[in-house]
């Protein structure tokens, strides 16, 4: 593009520099997203690779989600930083289409994983006595999510491209990567319909699944409280009776056991059976408690996802309704709108923080890994000094 053409004594490069200067806070925020997303999700992968080897059924999708989040954070932040630096000088139409396709692919993959996790939690909590997802089912669901993400991304090159961008203030035109105003009407309408349907289906699905999960967990807690209350009442009422019957039971038991031969009676067997039953009951309670905590954790992740994507979906709708949406933004409005537009990336960087706060096992294993990582260099340093 010719950078010497002027309008009101300003060149294209100066105009681009003016917009880029106003977007410096956005570039800084995106850089913070990049560092946090890469470091956080990579650390999650390290914990699952070296500490939580062979993740259980409860945590199967966590390292998968971390890998998708890391890829999405790396690509999306670099892409949007590049576009911040080329707001009116983006003239490569083919590159813009490729970037749009990859954006759709990397954005939708983690969202699909959240839907799979919701289905898994629903099966685990609402149908605890039925078989949960098998390994084949889990792998098939991952392939299915990639296919759906691909289908979502395929129309994007026909909807986005390098478009003319006119400044009302300076009376000159540049080019930027954005939604085509006069592209393929069929593909543009198809993408709008598919995007709206997918968003609607995902939101409704997550709401219904976690609604049912919440109802089941609440009902189980109420039943547990009622059972504990009844158990205490039975113990209280039976205290008087048990003291009277205890002496007769002891004498009767002594007479019966004295007539039994050593081969027919083993005094340790009832105690072993009782200990096994108690241990099994404690294990079931522990597993149920862990399952409920992980369910709450995944619910928090889903709520964060919905809150982070709401501004982007709103801006996409406004972009579709008003052809000159971006052109009409002032130099002060643009950074705010772009911050809201890019806020969905928080969904890809916040999960490790949620794991650290809500997953006790992950927090403990992460602490052990950090001690191992920082202990070995110290030992090597001591040896080198000696």
Automatic annotation (TrEMBL):
A GO cellular component entry from the record: membrane
Chain segments annotated as transmembrane: 23-48, 60-78, 98-119, 140-160, 190-215, 294-318, 338-358
GO molecular function: G protein-coupled receptor activity
Protein name: CCKAR
Domain G-protein coupled receptors family 1 profile positions: 40-355
Topological relation to the membrane, as annotated: Multi-pass membrane protein
Disordered: region residues: 236-265
Keyword tags: G-protein coupled receptor, Membrane, Receptor, Transducer, Transmembrane, Transmembrane helix
Biased composition (Polar residues): 251-261
UniProt-annotated location(s): Membrane
A Pfam family of this chain: 7tm_1
Keyword Transmembrane in annotation: yes
